[in-house]
């Protein structure tokens, strides 16, 4: 059972939640931010982060993806806390290999690999009043999905009403390059795990209950996640 905490809503990033961010849900400033200036400013290509990954390695993992239908720019890792870099970690769990576990308190998503390890990704999660927990599963998957704001979001943010019939896939689409739709008992929960190019959102609670990974991480997870994969969202 999915347990909602507070007035949990549905949909993707609720961008009015954070006063430091832009006012419109669809003004995705980081989608088109070039990474070259950010990487050049670092000048630290050979230095190691606190997690032991060099900046050069991180720049490769989060580099541009030019061969996509909509080419994805590199993530500006100067704005990305190294603790959220993708990495393999020790993770003891009774869940089967392949299970996705969301830890909203620490802003991580884990893919259980078995043998006591997991692939860990940094994430953004639901903001206060939009958190939930429980078991679900991946009911369907999509690349460059059409985004349709739920009625609840349209009521909260009337500016999204113009997309009531759907916003086509693309860099400005809130679902990004890849989407995993979460189901329970055959019904869509209205929650997703989606791709974001907003580097500064990782490690924050800003969504209406959905979970976002950087585009490069989401593509990595998506490629290894079949339909029917179990998803466990831990209590915040």
From TrEMBL:
Name the UniProt record assigns to this protein: L,D-transpeptidase
PANTHER family attached to this UniProt entry: L,D-TRANSPEPTIDASE, L,D-TRANSPEPTIDASE ERFK_SRFK-RELATED
Gene Ontology cellular-component annotations: extracellular region
One Pfam family in the UniProt entry: YkuD
Record's keyword terms, sorted: Cell shape, Cell wall biogenesis/degradation, Glycosyltransferase, Hydrolase, Peptidoglycan synthesis, Transferase
Gene Ontology molecular functions: glycosyltransferase activity; peptidoglycan L,D-transpeptidase activity
Keyword Transit peptide: no
GO biological process: cell wall organization; peptidoglycan-protein cross-linking; regulation of cell shape
Keyword Amino-acid biosynthesis on entry: no
InterPro entries named in the record: LD-transpeptidase (IPR050979), LD_TPept_cat_dom (IPR005490), TAT_signal (IPR006311), TAT_signal_bac_arc (IPR019546), Transpep_catalytic_dom (IPR038063)
Pathway: Cell wall biogenesis; peptidoglycan biosynthesis
Protein family: Belongs to the YkuD family.
Domain L,D-TPase catalytic: 98-234
């Amino acid at each position: 059972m999915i347990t909602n905490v507070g007035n949990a809503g549905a949909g993707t990033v609720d961008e009015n939640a954070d006063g430091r961010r832009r006012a419109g849900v669809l003004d995705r400033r980081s989608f088109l931010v070039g990474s070259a200036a950010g990487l050049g400013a670092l000048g630290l290509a050979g230095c190691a982060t606190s997690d032991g990954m060099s900046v050069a390695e991180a720049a490769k993992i989060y580099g541009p993806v030019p061969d996509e239908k909509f080419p994805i720019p590199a993530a500006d890792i100067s704005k990305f806390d190294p603790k959220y870099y993708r990495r393999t970690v020790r993770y003891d769990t009774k869940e089967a290999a392949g299970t996705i576990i969301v830890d909203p308190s620490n802003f991580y998503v884990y893919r259980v690999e078995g043998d006591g390890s997991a692939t860990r990704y940094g994430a953004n999660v639901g903001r206060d009043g939009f958190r939930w927990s429980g078991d679900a599963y991946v009911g369907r998957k999509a690349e460059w999905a059409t985004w349709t704001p739920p009625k609840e979001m349209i009521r909260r943010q009337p500016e999204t009403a113009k997309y009531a019939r759907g916003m086509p896939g693309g860099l400005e689409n809130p679902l990004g390059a890849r989407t995993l739709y979460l189901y329970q008992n055959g019904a869509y929960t209205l929650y997703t795990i989606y791709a974001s190019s907003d580097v500064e959102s990782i490690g924050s609670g800003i969504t209406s209950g959905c979970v976002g990974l950087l585009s490069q991480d989401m593509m990595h997870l998506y490629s290894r996640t079949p339909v029917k994969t179990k998803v466990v969202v831990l209590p915040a």
